[in-house]
Amino acid sequence: MRHGKYPLLAAFLLPAIGLYATLVISPYAQAFFIAMTDWQGLSSNFNFVGFDNFRYLLKDSYMWNALWHNILLMVLLPVLTIALGLFLASMLNVGDGRGRVRGVRGSAVFKIVFFAPQVLSIAIIGVLWKEVYNPRSGILNGGLRAIGLDGLAKTWLGDPAVAFWAVLAVMVWANAGFYVVLFGAAMQSIPRDIYEAAALDGTGRWTTLWRVTLPLVWDTVQVAWVYLAIIALDGFALVQVMTRGGPNFSTDVVGQRMYDVAFTEFKFGLGSAIGVVMFFLTLSVTVLALRLTRRERIEFS
Amino acid sequence: MSSAHDLTRRTVLGTAATVATVAVAPALLAGCAVGGDDNPDQAQGQKDTKNPLGVKDDAPLEVVIFNGGFGEEYAKAHEAMYKENFPKATITHSAVVEIGKTLQPRFIDGTPPDVVNNSGANSIDPGSLVSQGQLADLTELLNAPSLDTPGKTVRQTLLPGAVETGSFDSKVFILNYAYTVYGIWHSSKLFKDKGWEYAKTWDEHIALCKTIKAAGIAPWTYQGLHPRYMSWPVISTAIKFAGPQVALDIDNLQPNAWKSEGMKMAADAWHQIVKDKYILDGSPGLDHKQSQTEWCNGKAVFISCGSWLENEQKAVTPAGFDMAVAPTPSLGKSDKLPFEAVRGTAGEPFVVPAKAKNQRGGMEYLRTMLSMKGAKDFTGKVSSLTIVAGSADSISLPPGLSSAVKVLKASGDKGFNWVYPVYYRKLERNLIDAACGEFFSGRIGPAEFLDKCQKGADEIAADPSFKKYKRT
After folding, report:
1. CA distance A203 to chain B (A)
2. What CATH number corresponds to the domain at position B152?
3. What is the interface pTM, i.e. ipTM, of the complex?
4. Which of residues 229-248 of A touch B (CB under 8 A)?
5. Smallest Cβ distance to B425: which of A42, A45, A264?
């Protein structure tokens, strides 16, 4: 057994590693190289420019503006999505109160409703919400006017003061459903007797959620946090479909900046530099998030 | 887990990393995104009066068409005409939507097709293609005799200003085939029903807006999420007031070109429709389709657009709408250009790549398109004008287009245009766009608007990574 081990392992690993290297690692490595050139992506001519592209980015106010939006997203998207996800999941799974460990009435239906956005592609979500936000015929303004709240009707995606929040709301809407299911699954694995004990001690729903459920699903929350932070660092697809970064750059994100620089200005060197910056940002955010959320494991025994 | 020291996860990963590094090195050398370049031999034939460009008669020709508003049928007709003259040539035709994604690798690789219709949202930035030396100079084609207009060169058969939009530093790299008229669009039927008349001066225009608003309709709407559409009437007004120098200065990135007297007058004038709330509620939040549809549904009377509007709105335009285009109103009697002057420009770019295998054939294909027969066929098939003068005569056109022809004729040699969006796409698409958005939603006034435009132009001017072009 011991002698045949390495050839066998190699036979399994090498093809996969080969594919991974050519299709994933090699483009990454090339991006690092291209980021140091002034390549325009239309011919094979380029000059090596060292760190000029990064120096340019450091002074580029559009880049900082986009980055600021990503940072806002990175803080707000996980907080809002996880809070909403936890609240809904606990209502659906353990929210009945009164000592019985089960969800509120109709929770089976709600589970499907909340999860529905997850099966839509991001492009469809973008187009759908663009119509919802249509200031004249969209159902959002229509609904507000129907119930007499005309003062709250806005131009949504056309107003720089509102557009960013409108996009953020769609992101939360699109993601919350998945985390409801994820947290729900985690809650299902919590032993019932803990809840029963808590109920005997007379805890309310909030205390149960805060003191019992949350600590016991903390691992899952941690994973959710990392995922959502990465989604927030991207955010490109939705922005591209809904606003292209406008109006007046109020919804611009780093991903959109990269797309514009590469595909409308045809500066692939600079675009790759933005990609490299994003790579390191995502990496450090992940490490940071894992560090900050590390807590002692609770073992069920 | 007692023999863990033999094979831990860590050693497997470590080995994998080593293998990966080894595997990446050759991949970097071989399959590099930036590599690959060879200059192929160009197919060349004998030049004579029937074949002035010297096409090799059996050289294969590859044509890539943008499959957008015009479709691809017109191109198939042009290819058939080419084949009539060169029966031995085989033609490869393809029509794609994503020109950039499809062709960028082939440009890098040095194996581009012979003719490219570089159009659509995913087209390749023309300024970059030119600055990278990827396009063939079309001057020879323009000086060649026309295919079916005896005694004239190709250039002499074209409308004024047709070549300008594809010229970079006195060479012609892009042939913009379709002719577009930009102006203010309205429904002639609505005007007839209400007894209104299109206003020729700005004061009359504002008075008309007042009447329209009193009738319960919004006078204006605009493509709110792409507000650059509104930069067109503003710049047009300025050019008509102060002369074509306004456009020249803007194109050449002259200092303070956006804050010239003409631009100031124009911005002040247009601010009126914002101040007096003559713009349809919610317009800033509508995209181009949504706003144009509101306009078609009679919710607003005026909209700024180019002559593709009729085609774009075909599906939602009510019967008998009778859309018509008109020039921007004059500011006053002292205007340098008459009211009739309108912005006309060639659009729908065709290029012959510098590294095309059959460059001669590519140019000959363009010569076929520019023949009277080719142009008439195009106009008949897709309801759009071409840059070939007189090619729309005796063809029955839909109402919007026939009004465009009329406007163009009235404008004659007073027509004008600007080309900074071709030189510096970012300036119009991102920077002027953002300024127009702020201005027409009323968040900033005319002075701040021009400051913001100028700031954008200054950024481009100061950025050495944009190759600068000058025109005279």
Report:
1. 44
2. 3.40.190.10
3. 0.80
4. 243-244, 246-248
5. A264
